[in-house]
Design a protein that fits this description.
Radius of gyration: 23 Å
Number of helices: 5
Shape: globular
Distance between the termini: 73 Å
Strand content: 15-25%
Structural class: alpha/beta
Largest sheet: 6 strands, mixed
Number of strands: 6
Helix content: 25-40%
Length: 180
């Protein structure tokens, strides 16, 4: 009976084979940065640029937005942002790339200025906030400050979070914002 085969080598004896490329390291989701609120006992959990802008995206089609929610909507925030980005990419002949510059979750009392400080840090041109569960009075304060500084700020209620028509209205408003 013949001995079991050890395989057939197609490489001449003594030939050194180059090492294969190492497996790429798995991409870990970005770790949120927790910012302690200066105005009170609250904090702002912020995930900056959860995904990069794809290469070759024309600058005039990019709109950078900060998405904000109260603690109770923390899990819904990335899902809503993804939904809105998907609508923005399909609503017109020239798709708009909606960049999630930051995803921020308010935990307790924070100020509008702490949220707005994210805009220059991320080069964002506006804020979209999920109004359900948002700290009381903060949404009004944020609206007022944004209006005074001529910044884009829109509230999205729970009934609008999954409606394509509401998302299209938001996207149309954002088409007028500064690109890049």
């Amino acid at each position: 009976e013949p001995p079991p085969s050890e395989g057939i080598s197609l490489v001449p004896p003594g030939t050194v084979l180059p090492a294969g490329r190492p497996a790429p390291e798995p991409e870990l989701p970005p770790t949120p940065v927790v910012v302690q609120a200066a105005s009170g006992p609250g904090s702002l959990s912020v995930q900056l640029e959860p995904e990069p802008i794809p290469d070759k995206t024309p600058k005039e089609q990019i709109r950078r937005i900060v998405f904000v929610a109260g603690e109770s909507q923390g899990e819904a925030l990335p899902k809503f942002a993804k939904f809105l980005c998907g609508v923005a990419a399909t609503v017109s002949k020239r798709p708009m790339y909606l960049h999630k510059s930051a995803l921020a979750v308010c935990q307790g009392a924070v100020s509008a200025s702490e949220i707005l400080a994210l805009l220059p840090k991320t080069n964002a041109v506006g804020v979209i906030l999920l109004s359900e569960g948002f700290p009381e009075g903060l949404a009004d304060q944020l609206d007022k400050v944004c209006e005074d500084q001529e910044l884009f700020c829109r509230r999205v209620g729970p009934e609008e979070m999954t409606k394509r028509t509401a998302a299209i209205d938001l996207v149309i408003d954002m088409m007028l914002l500064r690109a890049g």
